[in-house]
Design a protein that fits this description.
Strand order of the largest sheet of chain A: 6-7-8-3-9-10
Number of strands of chain C: 2
Largest sheet of chain A: 6 strands, mixed
Largest interface: B-C, 56 and 55 residues
Radius of gyration of chain C: 20 Å
Oligomer: heterotrimer
Radius of gyration of chain A: 25 Å
Number of strands of chain A: 22
Shape of chain C: globular
Helix content of chain C: over 70%
Mean pLDDT of chain A: 87
Strand order of the largest sheet of chain C: 1-2
Largest sheet of chain C: 2 strands, antiparallel
Low-confidence stretches of chain C: none
Structural class of chain C: mainly alpha
Shape of chain A: globular
Number of helices of chain A: 17
Chain lengths: 512, 346, 298
């Protein structure tokens, strides 16, 4: 490691802007990390953290502005260039080759070789033990990456950066995959590396950790840097408010008392796993009654995706039961959930909520094409479909050219209205709404909130899952927090406030 | 409106580019071996489309391609990469030929539908296994259907060399079908037969189905975005299995029509790769009925011209195979900025 | 009797094994090569041409490897740089190169189907002193050509190189995790291209073995689908060079058996389907195992 005397900014960005289509992922971002510090970057999903980090690591390039290294503006030609300048990153999805051993993963691209390209195992092992000792860990180097436990894989990524001589380590949400005791180990390692003179950029949702370990903190929201502060000057509450923004009063929907009777949606002992088969949710019990909106608050990655997948019938629970309208639907295909009256607004509008390359008409009728109103002996009733689509889209004031235009031709807010139009026009009994206003502007958000409230007022049940506290507070009749896969605490809207729910979703307050 | 026109132009250009590139490569090969490329191509166009008889020959060559192209298209549109039409073609051919010579007492009005239906059923049944494997276990259908092609070809070759070999025949072939089972000729003198009309009708029906039928919308949505389709309640395994079987049935029917309409029996080496050409056709056509029709006629023209230019100008017929292969290769290439990847070392 | 059969089986295995090793390495690097047949065919033709022109089997072999590598390079560039589907490109090469070979026979040599020039130097058959004298074993290993020895020597060599050399490590990483390889600053596509060129060179050698190792001429059907049998062999072998070789040997033995069983009531065509059936069975088994594993984890 070279001594950097008098360098003020080891790594940073100046006036950096990056657009994807019409979306500003990074908007004039200024960011500076002093050498030998731990600098945390916090923000919700879509705040622009990952884009910024990808640019700092040379994986992506900015449209405007520059990356700063050692006080100098630089243009990174690729990740190898960043590596050469001492910058390395541990990605959220691990960059390891699963069938290779941990040792092989460590040395990949910087293999010590003898003649003929033969790998010098002894030297490789020596180096491996050296970096492991540096980090104070023991590693079974012969283990395949696929068989290594998650914390070990993460450790390997950090060791790889050390092996390659990186002195700036970018860690992208490293604690989201760790258990509490492992988190403490990681934080200790970060302090150790800092003490050795390395610089760490630490991305996290979890504010206590950030306050615990970081020297400086940058808060991002909607592609912008909204606050830069130090651990000493701030608190969890302040950071949480900066992350989620101030509550917008105008958008409030009137809460309702919980209706009586049997619950429409009822989950018991529900356990959900992600696509890899790892448990992320539960066991949880949850009821949703007709005529109420239940808001699930929480920081992303605490089991929301699994809850949504189970409730909408997209994934079968690992354990537990789901009933809708008194009928047990556990393990049924999505089509049976929909037949039982479940509607679903996906958080991933572009990939799951809509088929962007298909016509607006097809997006509207998708999944309903077999209904007698829309087809006759297997033939589509195009007239009826178009009339109904026109009517439904008008009602939701969707602005579109022609029904035959692809859904991609609509603006983001109108796309979401189209998805909602499809789901609400079916007149479901339960609407599972995941991040229903993500990427939608304020006017659009208010409109969508009114739609959901009107659906409730007609007697519909709503399971609202949102990372936006504003949204939860504006819509929900009842608020439940999801923290580390468990439902913690339940309060009515009247008792809820930003501070209180914010604490609950961070696991600091468990009972109502 | 202009945006849609631009889109249309782009699609036509996208489909024409592989042909253009193949023609250039073929031209280079022709020039290198001492032929006059422009002259050869001019002759080919003349031989494919110059006069009623030549056009009929082209359409006759296009007949099996219409259906193998359709078989590929119907699977591809749902994102199922079935390359097994070739095997179904062989099986359909042998089944129809068998029915055609085993039932000499039946009237044509019965024997033809029976033989063709049997060919379709066997073709469809042949792909049930890879369909189920894909739908239930996620087994890659490309390799299984490719392997099934070779199995079907070996199996039918065995049948015509042994159990079904025509008595006294030197080459591996079944007996000729009864005249009643032959598909009637559309034009006197040529080989163009009712099979072309049937095939074209099926492609047109597919065109309507893909636009106006419930299944058409479903398969298209599944092909465009399986995750979305699942979320709106379309059951993917059923769609996967359905298109696989439909694709196999159409491939089998293609073989049946080829046997009853043109060859009038089944011989070893029954198909010069119609099933594989069908894949190229579907890719070029972007699975549309119009595209399948145009591409089939173009490939048919290549074949019918190839036979004649060899006769008249001494240019080997294989120039056609080279062009076909090249079209296939470039049909899937994405021209543009594919190689301009960031982040690779200099 | 059995020694003669084993000897024959070893010879029929050689082209399958060479192409299978190539295809195996290619697949380790992340590309399923359906164009092996075309590279084999090109190698077979060029071997005969060069052998006849120069009288040197060594030169002919080298030329066959070179032309196979060239076809491999063309194919890999279209797949990796133009983002084309490798399955279709492979099939397209099979069609186009078969056409090109026949086209050349007709237009350059004026022959149809079979090219049989004079003075084709054949691959030498090697005798091994001492071992030759041992009963059975002697008959099995004597009179094998150098490409057969090379093919079998390549099996452990490739297995060793994949696990112990820099290129082997990078190739395995490329096939398993392209994004990872890119993220550590390497160029996965170029690494993959290397493996396809290697597969092409070995397939070219396989073609040379067929033309100047066995028959001494080129015929349009000389490869007879062996490129696809090789595909079956490396699907059978999955991640192991040794299992791939076992598959190739098994399928080569089927091939030899099928020739001997002709006229004895066992239809050759039915024996020929075995490799393909075995691949489908293996894939189905793997699919079942995958599903069971996913269920157990959850």
């Amino acid at each position: 490691m070279t001594e950097r005397v008098g360098v003020a900014v080891r790594i940073g960005a100046r006036n950096l802007t990056r657009r994807f289509g019409g979306v500003l992922a990074n908007d004039c971002v200024d960011f500076s990390v002093a050498p030998r510090t731990i600098h945390a970057v916090v923000g919700g999903n879509g705040a622009g953290k990952s884009t910024l980090m990808r640019i700092l690591q040379g994986v992506d390039a900015p449209d405007e502005g520059t990356v700063i290294l050692d006080d100098q503006p630089v243009r990174l030609a690729g990740p190898w260039d960043a590596f050469a300048r001492g910058v390395g990153m541990v990605h959220q999805e691990f960059m390891l080759a699963p069938p290779l051993s941990l040792l092989e993963n460590l040395i990949l691209a910087r293999e010590p070789v003898t003649f003929g390209g033969l790998i010098d195992r002894r030297q490789a092992e020596g180096e491996a033990h050296r970096v492991a000792a540096l980090a104070g860990v023991t590693v079974d180097w012969r283990l395949k990456a696929a068989d290594a436990p998650i914390p070990m894989r993460q450790m390997l990524e950090i060791l790889r950066l050390l092996y390659r001589g990186a002195d700036v380590l970018i860690l992208d949400e490293p604690t989201s995959v760790l258990a509490p005791s492992q988190i403490n180990d990681l934080l200790a390692l970060m302090r150790k590396l800092k003490a050795e003179g390395r610089t760490i950029v630490f991305i996290s949702h979890k504010l206590e950790e950030v306050l615990n370990v970081a020297d400086a903190i940058t808060v991002m929201r909607s592609g912008r840097v909204v606050a830069t502060t130090t651990a000493a000057q701030t608190s969890v509450g302040e950071l949480a408010r900066a992350m989620v923004g101030e509550a917008v009063d105008a958008a409030q929907v009137k809460p309702r008392r919980r209706p009586s009777g049997a619950p429409l949606f009822s989950a018991r002992g529900l356990v959900g796993a992600d696509a890899m088969g790892f448990k992320r949710l539960g066991p949880v019990d949850l009821d949703v009654f007709s005529g109420e909106i239940v808001g699930i608050a929480g920081v992303g990655g605490n089991g929301q995706d699994e809850l949504v997948a189970c409730a909408s019938g997209l994934a079968s629970p690992v354990a537990g039961t789901i009933a809708v309208g008194g009928r047990d639907l556990t393990g049924s295909p999505t089509s049976r959930f929909r037949a039982a009256g479940v509607g679903y607004v996906s958080a991933d509008r572009g990939e799951e909520g809509l088929c962007l390359t298909a016509a607006i008409r097809d997006n509207f009728v998708a999944g309903r094409e077999r209904e007698p109103a829309f087809s006759h002996f297997g033939l589509l009733r195009r007239g009826a479909i178009d009339a109904e689509a026109q009517r439904a889209l008008m009602r939701l004031s969707v602005r579109f050219g022609a029904l035959s235009d692809p859904a991609a031709s609509l603006s983001g807010g109108n796309q979401q209205r189209l998805a909602l139009a499809r789901e609400l026009d079916r007149e479901p009994k339960l609407l599972v709404a995941a991040q229903p206003t993500r990427g939608v502007d304020i006017a659009g958000t208010t409109f969508i909130h009114r739609l959901i409230a009107a659906f409730r007022d007609r007697g519909g049940a709503v399971l609202l899952v949102s990372e936006s506290l504003d949204e939860i507070l504006a819509l929900s009749d009842r608020i439940v927090c999801l923290y580390r896969g468990r439902l913690v605490g339940e309060i009515g809207r009247a008792e809820a406030g930003v501070e209180r729910v914010g604490r609950m979703m961070l696991g600091q307050e468990t009972a109502a | 409106m202009s945006a849609r026109m631009f889109d249309g132009v782009r699609r036509v250009a996208g489909a024409a580019a592989p042909f253009a590139l193949a023609v250039v490569i073929g031209g280079v090969i022709l020039a290198a071996t001492g032929y006059e490329p422009v002259e050869v191509y001019r002759l080919m166009i003349e031989e494919a489309f110059g006069g009623e008889g030549r056009i009929a020959a082209t359409l006759s060559e296009a007949t099996p391609l219409l259906l193998t192209g359709l078989a590929a298209a119907i699977a591809f549109r749902a994102g199922v990469f079935n390359v097994g039409a070739e095997g179904c073609f062989y099986l359909g051919g042998i089944v129809a030929a068998f029915a055609g010579y085993k039932l000499p007492d039946w009237p044509g009005a019965l024997i033809v539908p029976f033989a063709l239906a049997s060919a379709s059923i066997v073709g469809g049944a042949w792909l049930v296994a890879p369909g189920l494997l894909r739908a239930r276990l996620g087994v890659d259908e490309v390799v299984t259907t490719l392997m099934l092609n070779f199995i079907a070809i070996d199996l039918t070759t065995w049948l015509v060399n042994g159990p079904l070999l025509a008595r006294g025949s030197a080459n591996s072939a079944t007996p000729f079908i009864t005249p009643a089972a032959e598909l009637p000729r559309v034009l006197p003198g040529g080989t163009l037969n009712l099979g072309f009309v049937l095939s074209l009708a099926l492609v047109i029906a597919y065109g309507f189905w893909s636009r106006f039928a419930v299944g058409g919308v479903r398969t298209r949505l599944v092909g465009l975005n399986p995750r979305f389709s699942r979320a709106v309640g379309i059951e993917l395994p059923r769609v996967f299995l359905g298109v696989m079987v439909a694709s196999g049935a159409i491939g089998g029917l293609a073989g049946g029509i080829h046997a009853l309409g043109l060859v009038h029996r089944f011989v070893a080496g029954f198909s010069p790769g119609y099933g594989f050409t069908g894949i190229a056709i579907a890719l070029l056509a972007r699975n549309s009925a119009t595209g399948v029709t145009i591409a089939s006629v173009l490939f048919g023209a290549l074949s019918s011209a190839g036979a004649n230019i060899q006769l008249f100008s001494n240019v080997p017929i294989e120039i056609v195979e080279i062009l076909k292969g090249a079209v296939m290769i470039f049909a899937v290439a994405q021209f543009g900025f594919g190689s301009m990847k960031r982040g690779s070392p200099p | 009797m059995i020694d003669l059969f084993i000897h024959a089986a070893l010879l029929t295995t050689t082209p399958i094994l060479l192409a299978a090793i190539g295809g195996f390495v290619n697949r380790v690097g992340g590309l399923v090569n359906l164009g092996l047949e075309s590279m084999m065919l090109a190698g077979a033709l060029v071997a005969v041409q060069v052998s006849s022109a120069t009288g040197s089997a060594a030169l002919a072999t080298a030329a066959a490897a070179a032309v196979g590598a060239l076809v491999g390079l063309a194919m890999t560039l279209i797949v990796t740089r133009l983002n084309a589907n490798e399955i279709i490109v492979g099939l397209g090469f099979t069609v186009a190169v078969a056409g090109l070979a026949r086209f050349i026979l007709k237009s350059v040599y004026g022959v149809w189907g079979i090219y049989n020039p004079p003075d084709v130097a054949m691959l030498p058959r090697l005798d091994i002193p001492i071992v030759d004298a041992i009963p059975v074993l002697g008959a099995v290993v004597s009179q094998l050509d150098p490409l057969t020895w090379l093919a079998w020597a390549l099996v452990p060599a490739v297995a060793f190189a994949l696990s112990n050399t820099r290129f082997g490590l990078r190739l395995r990483a490329t096939g398993a995790a392209e994004a990872t390889v890119r993220s550590v600053g390497l160029a996965p596509l170029t690494i993959r291209d290397g493996s396809t060129v290697f597969a092409g060179a070995l397939s070219g050698l396989a073609g040379a073995h067929l033309s100047i190792g066995i028959v001494g001429l080129f015929s349009e059907g000389i490869t007879g689908g062996r490129g696809f049998i090789a595909l079956a062999a490396f699907y059978f072998g999955r991640t192991s060079a040794f299992r791939t070789a076992l598959g190739a040997l098994l399928f080569g033995a089927f091939d030899a058996a099928q020739i001997r069983l002709q006229g004895r009531g066992v239809p050759a065509e039915i024996v020929q389907t075995l490799p393909y059936i075995i691949v489908i069975v293996v894939l189905s088994g793997l699919g079942l195992a995958d599903r069971r594993a996913a269920r157990q984890r959850a």
